[in-house]
Design brief:
This protein is 13% helix and 32% strand. The chain contains 2 helices and 14 strands. The chain has helices at 41-46, 55-76; strands at 5-6, 31-32, 91-95, 109-113, 117-123, 126-127, 130-131, 136-139, 142-145, 154-158, 163-167, 180-192, 195-196, 202-210. The strands form 4 sheets. The chain has a 5-stranded mixed beta sheet, with no helix packed on it. Strands 5, 6, 12, 13 and 14 form a 5-stranded antiparallel beta sheet that branches. The longest helix has 22 residues, at 55-76. It starts with a strand and ends with a strand. Mean pLDDT is 75; it is low at 5-9, 77-84 and 135-145.
């Protein structure tokens, strides 16, 4: 049996509604008469209690979103990224790249110079001695060239490939990089017959991060 209702209606001058429209009453316009126990279903739903916000769920979602953003940033600036810009024309490449993150704790620092250039490295305000193996070994009438230069601790200059390589190890006081930022300054110059060519001395600075 349908609930009894009282129709609350204010007619206009012409017998219609105040706005002049004909009398039409929607279900939600029906007001329960006094003593009726229930309102129409649509009105009950309108006043239904809202579900409370789950703040733990919100916090977890924000944490996940932040983590994804940090991972994306790390990948974009990782050691494998192509972020090297504005290198001097005398430097072909460097590793780790400027502002790189996620660099391995035992990574080498490598500077690849153009042909005819040499240099030295200063890392975290310490200038390391550069080991320069002989590029040519004279064995009587035989000349051996283009051999592979052995890697050793500290800075090694490879005169065959014109590279400077710094390798952590016991000889330099640490075998792994500490967590945080590290600063590299490379000074480089053109050489002829073992002498620095006047006016060719330059330097370049960059940092990388160990996590």
């Amino acid at each position: 049996m349908m609930d009894a209702v009282t129709i609350v209606h204010e007619p206009g001058a012409d017998g219609g509604d105040v706005d002049g429209s004909p009398d039409r009453l929607a279900a939600d316009d029906l007001v329960p008469a006094a003593g009726t126990p229930h309102a129409p279903a649509a009105r009950r739903r309108r006043f239904a209690r809202r579900r409370p916000i789950d703040w733990k769920l919100v916090a977890a979602s924000l944490a996940i979103a932040l983590g994804v953003a940090l991972i994306a940033f790390g990948i974009s600036r990782s050691v494998t990224g192509d972020e090297v810009t504005k290198l001097p024309e005398q430097i072909e490449s460097i590793s780790p790249v400027p502002d790189a993150v996620q660099v391995p704790a035992q990574a080498n620092v490598v500077v690849d110079l153009i042909d005819g250039y040499a240099g030295e490295m200063t890392i975290d305000n310490v200038t390391y001695e550069t080991w320069r193996p002989r590029a040519v070994v004279d064995r009587g009438e035989d000349v051996v060239t283009g051999g592979q230069v052995d890697i050793r601790d500290g800075v090694v200059y490879d005169p065959n490939n014109f590279t400077l390589t710094f390798t952590p190890g016991e000889d330099v006081g640490f075998e792994e990089w500490t967590v945080g930022n590290h600063h590299v300054r490379v000074r480089f110059w053109e050489e002829r017959d073992g002498e620095i060519v006047d006016g060719t001395l330059r330097q370049y600075n960059w940092t990388f991060n160990i996590v």
